[in-house]
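User: I'll paste a sequence; please echo it back and then give the predicted structure.

Assistant: Echoing your sequence first, then the prediction.
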Amino acid sequence: MENRRIKILAIDDNNDNLISLRALIKDVFPDAETITTDSGKNGFALAVDTNPDVILLDIIMPDMDGFEVCRKLKADEKLADIPVVFVTALKDDHESRIRALEVGAEAFLAKPIIISELIAQIRAMVKIKDANTQKRYEKDRLNILVEQQTKALQEKQASTMRLLAELRDENEARKKSENALRESENRMRVIVEGTPYLFFYTQGTDARVTYISPSVEKITGHSVDEWLNQSHWFVTDNELNNLAKQRTQLHLQGIFTEGAINVEVEHADKYPILLEVFENPIVVNGVVMGLHGVAHDITERKQAEAALRQSNELLTKITDMVPGVVYQYRLYPDGRSCFPISSIGMNTIYEYSPEEVREDASPVFGRLHPDDYQNIADAILESARTLNFFHCEFRVILPRQGLRWRLSDARPERMSDGGTLWYGIISDITERKTAEEQLSKLTLAVQQSPASVIITDIDGNIEYVNPKTLDVTGYTLDELIGKNPRIFSSGELPEYEYKKLWEVISAGNEWRGEFHNKKKDNTLFWESASISPIKNEKGEVIHYLAVKEDITEKKRILHELIKAKENAESANNLKDAFIANISHEIRTPLNGILGMTSIIQESYAQNAEEEDQVFFTAIDRSSKRLINTVDKILNFSRLQVGEFPLNCEFTGVSSVLQAIVKEYTLFAAEKSILLQFIAATKKDTIFADAGALATAVGNVVDNAVKFTEAGSVEIVLYRNINDKLCIDIRDTGRGISEEYIAGLFEPYSQEVMGYSRPFEGLGLGLAIAKKLLNLNGASISVVSKKGIGTDFTICFDKELKKKNGSADSSIAGVKINRSKNRTDKKPAILVVEDDRVNVLFLKTILKKNYRVEVAGNGAGAFELFTKQQFDLILMDISLKDGMNGLELTKVIRNGSVNPDIPIIAVTGHALPEDHRKSLEAGCNDYLTKPFQAIQLLEKIQIFLAHDGNN
């Protein structure tokens, strides 16, 4: 097909379709000659005149429809071999397909035409036309040639056999009488010399020719004299002649062999000829005297056989080149079936070789999809019954390829035994089916899409809108087709924005943005749009696609969310301020109460009765209970919103547990409970927030001591079998019921609630402990039995990595800048505090060992600092009237007057970020109110290294 100019005849009463077909054919087959006509009658006449390779035929035409044209074509012996492909818009009309195939069409294409399918069909049809033409020519020529050669061979064979019989008779007669022999020889010579066969005798074991009939000259071109006394018949050295030599040697040994010998001899004109030789030994008294035989020229017959073989090979190559499998399928009257002839495509179509199905077609039926098997069987039987064209699409399940689609088209004919023989082709249509399925899915997806989809031409005129577009805009399809999308414009988008949009998509790029559009009823709505070009195979823009989503409701919700977020942020800020103020306003007066109480207790301890100590103890416990309650509420509040910052460092867990035991020793002793710590491992360092860890474990220990009336509370630090660091807190207390354990770590939860609950507390301790442990990479579990005790287990499941820039607990390298000219012996401390009770407390505990100056606001403190020499500053963070404590600290650190002076933040702000902000501002240490006098004095001693009696 590719080496000659093909002719394609297109018959269609629609001139636009003819132009389209001509363009498609020209693009794929530039050298093809495309002949078109809009009339069935003219088309038939053109087919007679031009003998095209393929006819593309429409069905519906005014003067003569496609069926009548095809029927006339197939009825004409000269035109019947021209393949006919129906091309029609009746895509789903199965009756028309069947009728088309019944009138003789080779294939059927539905509009719109899939280019790849059209190309494949044209190529296949041209190959079929070539094959049909070649086959018709070769068949006619070979039939004549074979018939002639067969008749001649039969005549020669019969004559040869008669001559051989006569020769045998004559040989016997020669033994009786020489005269009879001479007469026989004369008679035989007359017969032999009058026949086209070549007769010969040889003498001796070297096979020298002693007689050869005159026909040898006609056959070989060499004279009789040239052959006499010659033994080298075989002038060519090849495999065929080598085999002939071996047979002759056997005959010279007196061994008879059956069958002819083929010998290649060089003609006098220097071309090879092929002789078929029947040769036997002449044996006298058991001795081989020579050979006798007959030969004839079979060159033409062999050439005819070779031509026939080449023709078959050519036909096989052609059919093998056809996509799919070209086949004969035979159905016998008894129900058996087979594929007598099939091309090599059988290996691909069914994954069986042609040989495997030549005698039995049942393996092929085993490949059919179970859902399609019965339909195919019924279609075969119906085609056999009616002799109508067989056309079927079906699925197969193959070992290597899996599920594939196949199309079979075949024409049946009735056999003499009552069976049916089909000539057909099976094609792989998987890609087409997949494309159809994908197209169907895409069509449904676009039709049912919750987004608006619009397709325009390159000028922006609407060619397609999906139902969602109609629902959103209120327009009908007829009102939008052919219009510009600006029909939706509200007029709010400036002209230059539309120009920019066109520049983007015209350049082949995607544009994304939002439109404030207008519906048919003038209602405004918001759309989020994506507009992109659609390109053909050459990269040329042929359409534009717009996918739009109605975001009016989203816009409204977003506006409400932004407003709600602003309100929430405002409320969150108020909450943070409230939490900070609560902490400050409770801790500051409590610091005064506890401080002054401790002073009163110390001052009047000698005069107070022993039973009066209970009052001081009650004040201390009540204050601590209040602080503990406030701390738990504030900590849980921050944990709930995820705003609890960690200050992680490498921490020895043993030291944390020892401090907790020390804190609760007095509480345990008052209840006569044994509280002890057991360190079963020295490998106790982790990277965690020590304060958070102390709070979490302390809450568990607090519960253990509180709920244990007798026995012990034991804290054990160890490594489990997985080398994880673990803490067990075991008590012999009242235990926890199974019903309550499930909600043990829920906030504000207590086993006994109501007015009669036996223990104080908010029910937050364990909830806070669990959250703080989780933040530090640890888990907590519990095992308990009512009336026996409880065992809490804390395991550090993973080690937290040290983060860059993690805050240190204090500022290293503190310098003490005392003036060399100072004459007083006591170190000077500047107290920056605006609460009078706390000022009185601080002055009372400090005046014995230090010189104390007090400032109630930031400005006054800075003025004192610049005028006097101080060794340390106790800085309250929250100050009235002007600068707060952090701002004042920054001013001091950035100034030139004693910028390295130690500053201890002493404040009622107890949140972790208050601690962090204090250190970041320049404070060297941090002390939260309320505190005991000894805590403050120890910190001061660290920074001043004073040897006085603190």
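The first helix runs from residue 15 to 28. The first strand starts at residue 7 and ends at 11.
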